[in-house]
Amino acid sequence: MPSVSAVSTQYPSPDRDTWTTTDARAIYELPFNDLLFRAQSAHRENFNPNQIQLSKLLSIKTGGCPEDCGYCSQSARSATGLNVSRLMDVDQVIDEARKAKDGGATRYCMGAAWRSPKQRDMDSVVAMVRGVKALNLETCMTLGMLSSGQAATLAEAGLDYYNHNIDTSERFYPKIITTRSFGNRIETLENVRQAGIKMCAGGIIGMGETPEDRIDMLLTLANLPSPPESVPVNMLIPIPGSKLSDATPVDPIEFIRIIALARILMPKSHVRLSAGRKNMSDELQALCFFAGANSIFVGDTLLTAANPGSDRDTSLLRRLGISPAPMAAAK
Ligand code: SAM
Ligand code: DTB
Ligand code: SF4
Question: Residue 157 CB: number of other CB atoms within 10 A?
Fold first, then answer.
């Protein structure tokens, strides 16, 4: 194991050169306490360590998706027994957003089980963005692949964030998804960035990938021309009937190491402890917050799967002395 001093302690300078694979692997392999100390130091330089951002998810169009993502409950190619629904009405989405705001969320994330939005759906999603923004919530959407024109339309509507995950390393990607490529994902991220929408991009841990795949996924994100403002790290929720229903659970210590590495490689980004918290102990979540995670999804449900819910989260945050972060000032 290398000591702290054996690894470069400088971030790429000034803030943004590229990180090398050698550096990232050496940081990941530091003794646990050195790794967490370094991650917590990077965290404190950039954020209030006792605040976390609260987001709420809503599935605005559930199931029947043509893509074959092996982890997902919503792929039409897996027998997950999910009820398929049409795109929700705009008013209903805005009502749900109001409830989320009352529950303390500052960002509202709307997800659709599409390969990409159809032109005929764009008016509705634009109306959703405008309506949710009018409630003084930050808006986020995840609708699959976007053309540059669609990204421009969403930017014009005032969309704050677009979520589009690279999910894993480029090498492991074809083992999980065959209906679109890693390159397709990067193209959409470029379209989002070009349109001036903030980027939310991360991935999933626990799909049978190696530690090197996890590290390479973070390196791809950190080395984008500008890294994502928001980095969701999901722990796989094994969905019965999906291809990954029997995936081997992740070692929690390795999971914490990945959160710490995300914090160090992308010191100014929000790192979201995303799907999978329901299966995590309070202690594991606490260590993830110490390692630099500073955002969560609140509420009983993610898109289709269960989340801890407000009683457990309120109790956990109170016991940790962590409070919800106020909404970022609009730029
Ligand atoms: N259809 C859109 C897309 O794929 O871009 C948006 C919705 S999709 C459900 C959003 C992300 O949720 C996926 O990219 C994946 O990272 C994450 N996700 C989906 N199912 C999951 C599961 N069972 N466990 C953990 N994360 C999951
Ligand atoms: C992300 O990285 N995680 C969220 C959000 N982006 C859209 C989705 C998690 C989905 C978990 C499985 C489900 O609810 O179906
Ligand atoms: Fe469809 Fe998104 Fe699920 Fe893939 S992750 S099957 S694109 S809803």
Answer: 17
